[in-house]
Automatic annotation (TrEMBL), chains A, B:
Disordered as annotated region, ranges: 1-20
PROSITE patterns reported for this sequence: HTH_TETR_2
Protein name: Transcriptional regulator, TetR family
Biased composition (Polar residues): 1-13
UniProt xrefs under PANTHER family: HTH-TYPE TRANSCRIPTIONAL REGULATOR YJDC, TRANSCRIPTIONAL REGULATORY PROTEIN
Keyword Zinc: no
Top-level lineage group: Bacteria
UniProt keywords, alphabetically: DNA-binding, Transcription, Transcription regulation
Amino acid sequence: MSTDSLRTSTGRPLTSRGRQTRERIVTAAAALMLDIGVSGTTMEDVRDRAGVSSSQIYHYFSDKDELVRAVIAHQDETIVGTHEEVFAHLDSLDGLRRWCDGIVDYQRLGGCSGGCPLGSLGAQVAETDPDARAAVARALARWERAIRRGYDAMRDRGVFEDSVDTASLAVATLAALQGGLLMAQVQRDTAPLRASLDAVVHRAELLATR
Amino acid sequence: MSTDSLRTSTGRPLTSRGRQTRERIVTAAAALMLDIGVSGTTMEDVRDRAGVSSSQIYHYFSDKDELVRAVIAHQDETIVGTHEEVFAHLDSLDGLRRWCDGIVDYQRLGGCSGGCPLGSLGAQVAETDPDARAAVARALARWERAIRRGYDAMRDRGVFEDSVDTASLAVATLAALQGGLLMAQVQRDTAPLRASLDAVVHRAELLATR
């Protein structure tokens, strides 16, 4: 989302300082929702963590649903935006391996808590908030396209044959990442994430060497 | 869990009729938690759906946390128990394909809502209820072992070489299933689940034909 389109809860455009305060609130809410879940996070928790007043928080967000959607947009920008950068420069099996290693290392550092900042939000809102579910669905679709760009580059470089379905490969890669992150979160162990991402790399290797 | 070990919230063993009432409460709670999530489900919702009184529900469950753990045990028995049966008789690539097709068909029938009855519980409780998280982790480990049994049977029949790591294959299969179910739930579309499970089958085929 362009920062120019950001508004207060009564529809006014934000000043530069207003954007900073809003950003602090959203970052605090995102961290809390990753730590204790969407339902466990109250507006009061967010207010305290962001160090703002109640009137300030309601100046930017009319209710918690609006804040949840701002957190989804924030994770879309952060997580999917980062992957767009990464996969724009990824065009080899080695690059794919390094990406997998980086994800496993990052989860290990965080004690495997929280799961995927976007996927875990999706699981929590899917049956209770259709608008939030649709926003996560759009972010996942953007994520698929980002990953596909890396597979397309590999195909263009001749790593894969032209007949390889890079779109399906990208969807399966994202699914393997989501499932691996969920299992790592629940089992508090990077092993399932490692096995899941190794399967992605292994299949790419088998496709490349046929 | 053996039904003999079931108790009231004050520790008394259950009669046959008591076990039936308890089962009705747990089934109602499981359906509600799949429909509207763990946090959205109240003890009053469960009472009304099960058609029991408040004193009856608290006769079996001292609080919601205890009910959540009973639902996890119920899904463990239902979902993982079913998979133990299925994979005890699965020893071929055709069997693996049929299993995948069955899962996709089942999700299509349900409009892709709810996600995995066990994995979605895991995502919801992982950061808020350590005992519930550990119970889901144990169920996932049991599920891995069930799937592995099918891959072991394939290896024993010569579908795979002896060097194939069936344990990792099983973990990656479960992760692909979990990630595919989560994406299908969020995107309300079986396509990501299909792509994720096709990747599992495809990798098994590539391993088998090397």
